[in-house]
Amino acid sequence: MRGALLLAFPLAFVSAGCSSGGACLLDSDCADFSMVCVDRHCVPPGARDGGGRDAGPAGDAGGDGGVVADAGADAGSDIGDGGVASDGALPACPDLTGAWRAMPLDPSICGGSAEIPVTLTAGTAVCEFVVSDPLAGTLTVSTDGTVSGTLQGVECTGSASDPFTVTCGACQFTLVR
Known about the structure:
single chain; mainly beta; Lipocalin; two-stranded antiparallel ribbon; 1 helix; 10 strands
């Protein structure tokens, strides 16, 4: 029986992940994918950790409390040098930058235009995109492709998968390249 308990304890520790208080072991334990794990706390990249170092993605001097991911063939895995847990770089974002056409499903609800030309540029936050006039605002894409943000002061949600759709209040549109 004692042997079974000793085997169960390490498994419970490894699967602990992020607690409700925001404690973490890996960047991927943070509920907000744009946060990084520093000294067992989820913080925004660039924030200072307890030692006065800049927090950053794994591999940076202060990121993940100084744990460095293996730069070999298995980089990006959850096991780095010496078996120490690390999850590598921040998640990749889809490249949504460039010219788009917003095609409203019902133009009468969305200001009357059947096609609205807009440009998306990279924002300052991870996976954030700035939308040009006339829609003017920002959209953020999560790792699962869910879109959230604000356009013309209206809260928006959507999906960056095919088709790229956004709903802002009663106005729904598809973004097409």
